[in-house]
Structures are given as C-alpha cells and as structure tokens.
Sequence to fold (449 residues):
Amino acid sequence: MAAEGTAARQNERRGVGRALLLTLASTILPGLAHLWAGRRVAGAILLVVSLGAFIGLGLAAGDLALIQRLVVQPRWLIAFGAVAIVVALLWAGVVLRSYLLVRPHRMGPLARFASAAFVATLCLVVAAPLGAAAGYSYVQYDLVTSLFRDGKGGGAAPAEDPWEGRQRINILLLGGDAARNRTGVRTDSMTVASVNVKTGNTVIFSLPRNMENVPLPRGKLRDTYPFGFDGLLNEVYEYVAEHPDMQPLGAADPAAQVLKETIGGILGLEIDYYALVDMRGFAQLVDAMGGVMMNVERPIPYGLEGGVIEAGRRRLTGQETLWYGRSRVGSDDYTRMGRQKCVLGAIARQADPVKLLTRFQQLASATKRAVSTDIPQDVLPALMDLSTKVRGADIDSMPFVPKEGIWPGNPNWRRIRALTAEAIADSDRPKSGRGKKKKAKSLDETCPQ
Fold:
C-alpha cells in the first residue's frame, strides 16, 4: 500500500508539473495546451491568431515614424486602449482555460494552491503590461485633447499634407514669466522657429524683449498706437490680456494671437502657430526629460543663495537649465538670448522618443501644466514627422543684436526683415550653395556640444 501511495504522489507531481509547463508554454504561444489536449481547431485558431498578432506587433514596433503619428491621434489612442484591455482579458482567459484543459483530475490541497498561485501569476504577467499600456493611452489621449485644439470639431482626422505647396512653417515659442511682484504675464523669451518642411532645416530668430516702438496689427491697436507700441515688446501680451476692448474676436488666447501677428509683422513672416511655456513649468518639463546636456562656457550664478553652475559639459536639471537660460548676472540680454537658443537646440537634439517613453506620465503631467498652444490636432502627425527631420537637420540662429545693426531702442524694421529673408533663403539652399559670410550661424558653431 505504501508503494502504491508513493507512486500516486509521483504521478500527481508529474501531472501537475506537465500541466504547469503546458500552461506556461500556452501563455507564451496561445494554443499549445489546446492542441495537446486534443482541441485541435481551437488550438490552431489561437496559434495562428497569436502568431499573426506577434508578427504584426513586431513590424509596427520597428516603424517609429508610424508610432509617432498614431500616438498623437485621439481616435487611435482610444482604440488602442480599448483593444489593450480586451486583449488583456482574453489572454488571461486563455491562460486559465489552458490550465483547466491539462490539469490532473486529482490533486492534493498543496498542489491545488501552488497551481492556482502559478496560474494567477501568469495571468497577472500578461494582463499588467497591457493594462499599463491602456493607462498610458488614456494619459496621452487626455494630453492631446486638452492641450491641442480640435480644429475640425469632433474627429481631428489627420490632414494628409497640411503644408502642401509650402516651403516652411513658422512657430512662435514664448517663455512666459508671471512673477510674484507684478500682475499678468510677460513674455521674456520670444523665439520664432522657421522650419523647412521638406528638409527639416531650421532657422531660430530671437527677438530682444526690450524692443521699442513695435508696430502693432491693424485695427484698434494700430489706431491707438499709430507710431508703435509705447511699451516694450515683452509687454504686448500682458497689455492685450488686460484690455479686452483691444482683443481680436475668435481667438482662444487673444493676447497670444496679437503677439503672433506683431512678431510676424516684424520679421515679415506668417506665424502659423505659437506655444507658450510657463517658465516655472519649463523646469518641470526638463526634469521630465531627465535633464539636458549643456556645454556651460563660463560659471553661471545659480539660485538665490550664491550657487554656481560650473563651466564644462554637464547635465543640467530643470531649475539649473532655467537659470542658465535666464541669468543676466555678469552679462546682458543678448548673451542670455544666445544661451536660450542653445537650450532650445539641445532639447531638440536630445528629445529621444524612446527615453521620453520611460518618463511618459511625468512628462505629460508637466506639459499640461506648463504649455498652452494653438496647434490643431489634425497637424500633429505631420509635426511628429517633421520633428524627426529636424533632429538630423541643420539648425541656424539669427539674433537681432546691435552687432547686426539692430538697436532695440530704435529698431530698423526693414533691415530685420531683410536679415530674416536672407537667413531663410540660405537655410533652404544645399550646403554647397550657402554663402560663407551668412548672417545666421549654425547652432553647432555657436553652441558647441
């Protein structure tokens, strides 16, 4: 009798081990346990479907451009989240069903408990990543729909080529400073990125915050200030925000719209979109990226307690990056403008989509708090494609400084527009055809990395 009991326990262990091994195999490749149990039709269907899904997913994962386009389209994000949840439930169900098909009919209490724990762990292993993916999908959906406007109302299907027939798009990047010792927001950083939509070649135009007598858009503002605004350029946004009677109709942010038109008039460009970044929120964005590598050419005073950002190549935190780009101690506005362009260029070069994915929720949360924009949802896929081109393209900078004959107290508007047109024309030429004495300098020259 003892021998028979020992043999029974050995058979039970072998049966449980085989069942768990088959369940594990069927977790990796659904259908194997069904085939072993004689459920050939169901097993074949599961095997074919799972193999097809794995192959398709592998091909899609290798197409980064496709992924970038899909993750900024709300309808695809909703669909992906729903599919991820359904697949998680089905996959966990297949794991459980696989075990039930191959488990021994007789098991002791310990074997039952161990088997249940093992199967539950397998279900969790397959469902948890898909649940997390569904969560990421919702976070991204919330970011896209709350930050970017739905230009078509209700769907925002991507435009096939939103810039068909155009050579460049122009985006105004604003850094807003809402200090405690004053009301309103002053745009102390104003930069236009003009991007060639075919090559990604970019020219960054930085405007001094203390430009005077800037010509305002036609209408009430021009009528009120026919000879130019009586404040500084960085006060235009604040002024319009505080004077509703001066605001254009139909704009989500009238002050930003006026500043777009004002700066577009100064440069002789049509500004397509703007992005306004709160300065304090900017630091959080940089932290969400994991910091930014900068070549600090000289020590920069940091903080209010006598700190210093030492010279050399180093990774700066968000707060350090903010101080690096804004400090005027021992320098001036023009030096600060140069550092700000270097920061923008470094971020454009170092914004690795794979690395950003690991900090996705932190980045999305910081972006929602810090950024406002009028970029519509339907151009986001094209912008993602363009961002890939920019990372591998030439980025030039054109500062409007006294050295170029531009004095903020009495700007030469005609010369500014001429310098702008010259810089863009040079950026559009092949490298071999560019002028050796071009005014716009490559960021690789002015911002050594």
